[in-house]
Structure formats: C-alpha cells, structure tokens
Design brief:
With 399 residues, this protein is α/β, with parallel strands linked by helices. Helix content is 34%, strand content 14%. InterPro entries: Amidase_dom (IPR023631), AS_sf (IPR036928).
Length: 399
C-alpha cells in the first residue's frame, strides 16, 4: 500500500470519528456544570479526576490568591462515592449538581471535618450541631463540599480589631485591586478556576460586589428564599444565601438546589410563596431582555450606617421598632413605589468598587433580590458588573 493511500485512509477515519475517544481532550478550566456533566456521561471525566484537578489548582494558586481557608480532607472519598453512584445509576445520580465540587463561604456550617469559623480564630475547632440548611440540600443533590472560602472576620461586622483565620485575598484579575465584600474567597476561587461553583451570603453587597469585581455571576435571593439556619448571622432581616458561579445557568442550577422551606428558619415560611414550583431553569431564555422595561439608578437616595455595637440595642425595643418601621417605609416609598409608578420589570445599574453600596443597600433594606453579571473592565483591568434588582420574588424575571 502506498504512503498516499495510507494517509487517505487515516484522514477518512479521522473525519468519521474513529479516533474521537483518543484525540478528544476535555478541558476542565472554564467548564460549566453542563460541560462537566456531559464529560461524566461520555466517560471523559470522573468526579475524582475533577476534584484532583481543583486540588492541584488550589495548591498552585491559593498561596497567592487566598480564596480557600480550608480544603475538605474527605473530598476525594466523596468524589469516588459520586463516581460509584453514577456507575450504578443510583437514585439522584442524574441531578445537575451530582458529583460537582462546591465551595462554601466559611460562615456556612458543615457537620464534617471542616471548620466553620466566619474567618475568626474564636471559632476555630468549634463543633456545630448540624449542617446548615442549604448544605443539607446540596448534599441531597449529590454535590461535593470541596472546602471553605476565605472571608473577612465576622464579615467585617463585629469590631474594628480582628484576629483573622484568612489572610488578605487577592483579585485574580488585578492583584492590587480589592476583592470586595466578605464573600471574597468564593468569588476569587470561581474566577481563578479553583472550583466551578460556590455559595456566598449577603447582608449588604457581600455577594453582589465580589461577584462583580471577579467577573462572575452572583445571585442575591429574596430574603427567606434560601435558609439561613446554620449560617453565622449579621441581620436576620437582611441575610440571604446565594450562588456565585461563572454563568447564570450554573447559578440557577445551584439556586434550584438550595431554595425551600426549613423549619429552623422562620423566614423561609413567609418566602415559600415566592418559590417557582417548577424550578428556575425554565426562565433561562436567550431573549429574556426583549420588551422589558428597565429603570436606571442614577443617584444614591439614602445610606445605611454600620451599627456601632450590637449590644447597644439590648433593651432598646422602642428604638429597634422605630428603625425597622423606618426601613419598611423607605422600601415602600422607595423601590416599591418606583417600580409600580414606572411599571418597571427591573432596576439596573453598573456595579463596581466605586458604586458598590448604592444598589446593594437599596436591595438589602427591603430583602429584595438582585443578580449581577459580568459587564466589562475598567481602565486598569478590574472587572465590573451590571446589577439587575427588583421586588421580592422577582427571581424568575431577573433570570
């Protein structure tokens, strides 16, 4: 057989996919949840290999970026377990998050070998009574808890003096730029491909800001849509748990997994009415913005001062009721009136380090949801996002 004939046969075999399994290389970097699940199904990847890749990236990048406080020592075992479940077609093994590693902000409790410190040495070695409500749901979905994300101690809300577990985090795009917000480790780690999906918590800007400056997607759900049980609190009125991922689709997959009633958190009882019964995936539409009426936030309406000391409100029931009534009034006469008066589908604004408190505070005081998505980079290369916000339960429209 001539050399030309042999080459012709090889070319035909390549064209018809004969060598596909040998020549196709799956890249984990920047892979979405859908990409990873497809790779699992086609046997191009296992959960164990995926965890091994992330552990290698953590060892390589975390000494500089400081996105992780701690890695789950059982992560490889959990990955092997997920692979065995998938192989046996076990119940739940087809869930979108099955076998997918996820990073948790360090104020979200896990009843395992991981610490839950809220970034403080004061809680190092403490024992939690149970998994946080959202962690229970993630484990049920088959997700692998990969570790805990770095954060400012006590979410920078207890004192001006800190003894921190985490070291100063770095923005992977511009190291000298701040990572912004106390869910910084979650944002950094997703942006730097040390994990595909993560959870953050927000009181005022803690999900939206670090998502924005790390060029990822962050969803701050309506307060009560996701459980705060097992989450070290700041404000029960404003605290909420939400996903921080590279794409809206991935964030929606995580949101679908963690929403729901939890008898340990009364706020979830009131928010059940806002949950989409068929899930949020159905609202992922490429032309979702078509025909929508958006309001642009131009100026800052009002601010919200940091409580100087939580203890000062003990016994001050009248003052506390006055503050809450004032915040409710601001919400009714502010965003709610604005949306109804102008028949808006959502409020939209750029979201960067210079404007981080504008929209987040507006959404925070009313318990309203918001989503930030990557929008571009400033003149020195720091990412910024665009934030869509609206009234309670508007997640389907925002998505």
């Amino acid at each position: 057989m001539s050399t030309n004939s042999l080459l012709s046969i090889l070319v035909c075999l390549l064209l018809y996919g004969f060598f596909t399994k040998i020549t196709t290389a799956f890249s984990i970097k920047e892979a979405t949840t859908d990409d990873l699940q497809l790779a699992f199904q086609q046997k191009h990847l296992t959960s164990r290999q995926l965890v091994q890749f992330y552990l290698k990236e953590i060892r390589r990048l975390n000494p500089l970026l400081r996105g992780f406080i701690e890695v789950n020592p059982d992560s490889l075992y959990l990955a092997h377990k997920a692979d065995q479940e998938r192989k046996a077609n076990a119940q739940g093994s087809l869930h979108t998050l099955h076998g997918i590693p996820i990073l948790l902000r360090d104020n979200i409790a896990t009843k395992d070998k991981l610490n839950t410190t809220t970034g403080s040495f004061a809680l190092l070695g403490s024992v939690v009574p149970r998994d946080a409500g959202v962690v229970v749901r993630l484990r049920k979905a088959g997700a692998i808890i990969l570790g805990k994300a770095s954060m400012s101690e006590w979410a920078a809300f207890r004192s001006t003096f800190y003894l921190v577990v985490s070291v100063e985090e770095k923005n992977p795009y511009v190291l000298s730029a701040g990572p912004c917000g106390s869910s910084s480790g979650s944002g950094i780690s997703v942006a730097a491909n040390m994990v595909a999906v993560s959870l953050g918590t927000e009181t005022d800007g803690y999900i939206l800001c670090p998502s924005s400056v790390n060029s990822i997607v962050g969803i701050k759900p309506t307060v009560g849509l996701t459980s705060r049980s097992g989450v070290v609190p700041i404000s029960p009125r404003q605290d909420t748990v939400g996903p921080m991922c590279r794409t809206v689709r991935d964030a929606v997959y995580v949101l679908d997994a963690i929403v729901g009633f939890d008898h340990y958190d009364d706020a979830t009882r009131a928010a059940v009415k806002f949950i989409s019964e068929a899930g949020y995936k159905q609202f992922l539409k490429p032309n979702g913005l078509k025909g929508k009426r958006l309001g642009m936030e131009k100026t800052k309406e009002y601010g919200q001062d940091l409580f100087e000391a939580a203890e000062s409100l003990k016994g001050a029931d009248k003052l506390l009721k006055l503050v809450v009534a004032n915040l409710n009034k601001l919400s009714r006469n502010g965003l709610e009136e604005l949306v109804r008066k102008h028949k808006l589908d959502a409020l939209v604004t750029p979201y960067d380090l210079r404007r981080s408190s504008d929209i987040s505070t507006l959404l925070a005081i009313g318990g309203y949801p918001g989503i930030t998505v990557p929008a571009g980079y400033d003149n020195v290369g720091v990412p910024f996002g665009i934030c869509f916000g609206g009234l309670k339960g508007i997640e389907p429209k925002l998505i």
